[in-house]
Amino acid sequence: MNSKRGKVQDAKRHFASVNDIAFSPLVSGAFVTGDNDGHVIMWDARSRKRVIELPTCPNSVASLSYNHVGQLLAVASSYTYQEANEMQQEDLPSEVRLLKNLQRQELLSQG
C-alpha cells in the first residue's frame, strides 16, 4: 500500500483509491481495505499479502466495520455524487448491506 497516495497496488489490478481501512479484532495483523472500484480485500500485515478478496460491490466502498468479536464484517457501498446525479432518484436503493461471516480458522489458513 502506498500511504502517500492512499492507493492499493496489486499486480492483477490497476490503482484504486482506498476509502476505508478496518483492523480485525479477531486476528492480529489482519486488516481489510475498501476501494473506489468496489473491491474489499483482507490483508496480512506481516506477510504483506492478500488473504481474501470478497465479492466486488456494485459501487465504491464507503465504509467498513467489524463487530466487536471480529466475526462479522459490514461493508457499506454507495454511489458517487456524479453517478447519483446521472440516475433517477427512485432508482437509488435506500440501503445496501453486505455481511461476511469470518471464521478465525479461515483467516489463519489463508495467511
TrEMBL record:
Transmembrane segments: none annotated. Keywords: Repeat, WD repeat. Signal peptide: none annotated. The keyword Methyltransferase does not apply. The keyword Repeat applies. WD repeats lie at residues 11-53. It comes from the Eukaryota. InterPro entries: WD40/YVTN_repeat-like_dom_sf (IPR015943), WD40_repeat_dom_sf (IPR036322), WD40_rpt (IPR001680). This is Uncharacterized protein. It comes from Crotalaria pallida (Smooth rattlebox).
